[in-house]
UniProtKB/TrEMBL annotation:
The keyword Nucleotide-binding does not apply. Substrate recognition component of a SCF (SKP1-CUL1-F-box protein) E3 ubiquitin-protein ligase complex which mediates the ubiquitination and subsequent proteasomal degradation of target proteins. Acts as a positive regulator of the BMP signaling pathway. Required for dorsal/ventral pattern formation. Pathway: Protein modification; protein ubiquitination. One of its GO terms (cellular component) is cytoplasm. It holds the Pfam family F-box. Belongs to the FBXL15 family. Residues 12-49 form the F-box domain. This is F-box/LRR-repeat protein 15. Keywords: Cytoplasm, Leucine-rich repeat, Repeat, Ubl conjugation pathway. Part of the SCF (SKP1-CUL1-F-box) E3 ubiquitin-protein ligase complex SCF(FBXL15). The gene is fbxl15. InterPro entries: F-box-like_dom_sf (IPR036047), F-box_dom (IPR001810), F-box_LRR-repeat (IPR050648), Leu-rich_rpt_Cys-con_subtyp (IPR006553), LRR_dom_sf (IPR032675).
Length: 292
């Protein structure tokens, strides 16, 4: 066998595409490298399209700001097997027009992150609700277009939801959050941070219905008080972390029982906070026997 024949038999594209290259090689390459490979030749372009049509996870976090709407639509036009879709870095350009076709043909999606996608509307969320019955994780942080009706639609159709990030979804009020809690009993992680509409009513409803809750973020929920935190401690034995920074009506009387269960809380106990302040003033921390 001559040298040229040896080189031909070892050519990368001679390997089986769907049995070897796609599942065992291309799946380890970052998306930006795959996009670059498309430009090498027509064959590589075809290979990458085969990969994109069969990938289960599509994460644009590394190239989102630099990709065009047309490229996004082209990359996912043949994919019907997505399980995970991350769009948080596409906030500058993604709209319902680009997203709705992708959601409509991917009914097996389990994880969708639309955090910060300010140009989307409630139509995208309703589409996710109606198409993605197996949805488990949803990111909607800083999506101020999320309203009560779209959240209720989600609750009605995605009862298996395990985590949802509603940080700074400021249109939402207690009624919608309580409805979500009653419908999505498997919630393990919930963020209601930076929403002045959230009160004890929401927190208590979540605590009483979502007994498997592990992580709750109430950062900046100014109307949350001790009573709901005590209810949380009573009904959620699996709680692992609680964020209550800037919740000025939540005091150590409700947090101490959770600390004794080793729940991670983002607010230091009063004595430790006082020591930190004292150290800032004096430049050193005085010795205090905490066992006294």
């Amino acid at each position: 066998m001559d040298e040229e024949a040896k080189m031909r038999t070892c050519h990368l594209l001679d390997l089986p595409w769907e049995d070897v290259l796609v599942p065992h090689i291309l799946c380890y390459l970052p998306l930006q490298h795959l996009v670059s490979l498309q430009r090498v030749s027509k064959q590589f372009h075809s290979l990458i399209q085969v990969y994109l049509a069969n990938c289960r996870t599509f994460d644009l976090s590394s190239i989102g700001p630099s990709i065009s709407k047309e490229a996004f639509c082209s990359m996912l036009k043949d994919n019907k097997v997505l399980h995970s879709l991350h769009l948080q870095s596409c906030s500058d350009w993604v709209t319902d027009k680009e997203l709705l076709p992708v959601i409509g043909q991917n009914q097996h999606l389990q994880r969708v992150d639309m955090s910060g996608c300010v140009s989307l509307t409630r139509h995208s969320m309703v589409a996710v609700s109606l198409s993605c019955m197996h949805l488990k994780h949803l990111g909607l942080a800083h999506c101020e277009w999320v309203d009560s009706l779209s959240l209720r639609s989600l609750a009605d159709h995605c009862g298996g939801l395990q985590s949802i990030d509603l940080t700074a979804c400021r249109q939402l009020k207690d009624d919608a959050i309580c409805y979500l809690a009653k419908k999505c009993l498997k919630l393990r992680s919930l963020s209601l941070a930076v929403n002045a509409n959230v009160t004890d009513e929401s927190v208590e409803e979540v605590a009483k219905n979502c007994r498997g809750l592990e992580h709750l973020d109430l950062t900046g929920c100014l109307r949350v008080r001790n009573q709901s935190i005590k209810t949380l401690a009573e009904y959620c034995p699996k709680l692992q972390s609680l964020k209550v920074n800037h919740c000025h009506n939540v005091t150590e009387s409700s947090l101490d029982p959770l600390r004794k269960r080793n729940v991670v809380i983002d607010v230091e106990p009063p004595l430790q906070r006082a020591l930190v302040l004292l150290q800032d003033v004096l430049g050193f921390a005085p010795f205090i026997n905490l066992q006294i």
